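S.,

Sequence below, as promised.
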Amino acid sequence: MSTNIFDYLAWRGDLSFQECRINEVDSLILSCLSYIRFPGIVPGISESGSVTIKEASDAFFSQDRENRRTRTKEDERLLRMLGESRRFGPLRLSRYADRLSREQEKQFSAVTILFEDHSAFFAFRGADSTLVGWKEDFNMAFMPVIPAQKEALEYLIRGAEQTGGPLLCGGHSKGGNLAVFATSACPKAMQRRIQTVYNHDGPGFEKEMLKSEGYLSVSDRIHTFLPQSSVVGMLLDHEDDYTVIHSTQTGLLQHDPYSWEVMGPEFIRVKSVSTSSEFIDRTLKNWLSGLSSSERKDFFNSLYQIFSATDAETLQDLPVCWIKNFRKVSKRLLDVSPENRRMLHRTFFRLLDAGKEALLKEL
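The prediction came back faster than expected:
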């Protein structure tokens, strides 16, 4: 029988953090908490004060259903269980941030969780379902620093100045990348306070970042977890030392943190990522290495312009909006310059060639 973080909460939700210190499963739970939207419930970054998770849960579920904004129904279930938990219910939430800018191609959100021993966990949200959020993820392929990374660094520095205890950071998906970036780029004095950094299937970085002095200063405290068929977490370059864990899902669906299997305070380990994960990783790396930074930028910008013509706000909107605004999308395609059309065509074929090369190497 498979067991996940909901089973963990049923087993160990009655143990306080004084009785049992934070572990890797706790870190995933707190990272998932960042996906829940708390406007008007948790004080913002410019406000003082905090609320307990139980108080936040009660306030969240007192709203009309149409006003509750979550990524999945599992997020709602998680918040309800956390509020009822002796372990998590008393923890305090503060400095809630949620910013989306289409102009800056930025999607950033975070929340700070305060423990009774004065330590603080900075939880960074991963990419949500907005087109802007996913475009920012793609920008990592050609931008040395994306806007959300800059904001994560600022968020960590200001938050650390307001707390006096040990610092922990974590996130799922892009949130894990933000946690690693912020702790690698913050001042050295602050780095000494950092206890642990949890990266749950977050994309990697350019090789230069992994060789930087700031990254090397905290690398021994970074814990990266990838499901066995990871796709998102294998993007770009990663440190060699990561833990592969078992998911009950397949393929891309393994990115879902609620599919990760746990046993007690730990994830269930497997020896290595799957062959399919290695194949996709090799294909994408070969493809990107064959493109210059400007070619990557032109490719992803052109795709985003086409998708934006649908007027879709989220990935879920895309199929319906594509049909509804077919004429507008067709016009946008026709407006693409001949040079850019050739570039899109050429880049797609390079992706196919990279796949063939990776397959031949696999065989």
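Residues 338-362 form the longest helix (25 residues).

Coffee later?
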